[in-house]
Amino acid sequence: MTSRPAAAQHLRDLARLRRVRDRIDREYAQPLDVEALARGVNMSAGHLSREFRLAYGESPYSYL
Description:
Number of strands: 0
Number of helices: 4
């Protein structure tokens, strides 16, 4: 069973991942890197990459 704080954190992470995906969609023609994307949502680059892959089935670079 998932605790409420963990579930709430998971929902916040999903919202941040959605913001990253939306930014990639808007700014696809500009140079983007995972470090900059991660800084924009206050995550480490590694955590962003792992969570993005879990949520969307591919890495941020692959999505781009």
